[in-house]
Specification:
135 residues, single chain, Neuraminidase, elongated, mainly beta, 12 strands, four-stranded antiparallel β-sheet
Length: 135
């Protein structure tokens, strides 16, 4: 989970019998918390969330995509799919690590499978890749 500058908590749920979610927990008076679902994830989030420097965008991954959520003026969030990972792909399958930014705004992460199947023995799926997503 991560915090914003107002100390609201952001995280993800793992969906078993229903969809997974990206959520926000807001601290109320008297120490109580209020949950707000920001985004229903198609598939389960596989790593933590990441804010950009403005805290207007949240970035994350699920079973097969890297996504960006943008905070709108009315308090809702809109989704942009940044990249779709193809099953058994040489460019990576199943993103699993938290995303990180470089100074140019590029995103980096790793996948569980994919890449060259010749580079690692014992698996028909590849050993995973380090990937870069550029704006």
């Amino acid at each position: 989970m991560i915090l914003d500058t107002e100390e609201n908590v952001y995280g993800t749920t793992y969906g078993v019998s229903s969809a997974a979610n990206v959520f926000e927990l807001m601290r109320g008076n008297g120490g109580s918390w209020t949950e707000k679902v920001l985004y229903e994830v198609d598939g389960n989030p596989t790593a933590g969330l990441l804010f950009d420097a403005t805290q207007e965008h949240l970035y994350g991954t699920n079973n097969n995509v890297a996504f960006k959520l943008r905070r709108t003026t009315n308090g809702y969030w809109t989704e942009t799919i940044l990249h779709t990972f193809k099953y058994n792909s040489t460019s990576g399958t199943y993103p699993e690590s938290p995303l990180i930014f470089d100074q140019a705004g590029n995103l980096y992460g790793t996948t569980l499978d994919g890449g060259s199947i010749h580079a690692c023995s014992g698996t028909p799926y590849g050993c995973g890749v380090v990937y870069e997503l550029m704006p």
